[in-house]
Amino acid sequence: MADPAREELSALAAIFCGPDEWEVLSRSETDGTVFRILTKAEGLTGADVPLELVFHLPVNYPSCLPGISVHSEHLTRAQSVTVKEKLLQQAENLLSEPMVHELVLWIQQNLRHVLNQPDTGSGSTFATGMTVDDGLWLTLLRLDHMRAKTKYVKTVEKWASDLKLTGRLMFMGKIILILLQGDRSNIKEYLILQKTSRVDVDSSGKKCKEKMISVLFETKVQREHKRFLAFEVKEYSSLDELQKEFETAGLEKLFSEFVLGLLR
Questions:
Q1: How many Å apart are CA 103 and CA 94, to the nearest integer?
Q2: Is 168 a residue whose pLDDT tops 70?
């Protein structure tokens, strides 16, 4: 990561120093840094709207745009998509210089205006995503466990629906796999939701974030891969049943290389 980006992260940590205002979610020499900022902005009614802004700074940032996700219980999914699109438009004007603080200030000052525009949340991100992000992608995830299974499953189904992702949530014995197909940026946003939301409970029954998820594999969908038409939750009583699911989808190699090893 470039020195300006490191300096920006230090400055952001000092600026957003209130309770839960700032949290670094991951750091990697190859994937960059992902962090969360909690802030508020004036909404349509004049009341403050809490916003959770997740930024992904790639290793070559600020020479490239950051990844941005927007979440708020006070906004619809379509409104959150629109806010994200407007932030990315602003980011294009600030390319090559540290921009996160300016983007946060901008949305604090302009949220009401953004939400008041006609056709807010038209979903253009979903409409154009397939061509912008090099087509359909496939990702295989593994979860370690689900204590609050019913709620967890409903949450995963909702995220997949909101992000226009298809695939399978698969249970076989203690193995829990999530196979996702869709726009690559939406899969990345799914992962951010999975890692930052209090989707499960710990051993004492308190809500907790998912810390035991792993990405086993990801690739652009190839010609031999079946394109899933929906997201389904399925339970398998045997290894043969699970293997057949992968074979039907044209994913025999994925099963043999990444799934079989989990059972040894």
A1: 9
A2: yes
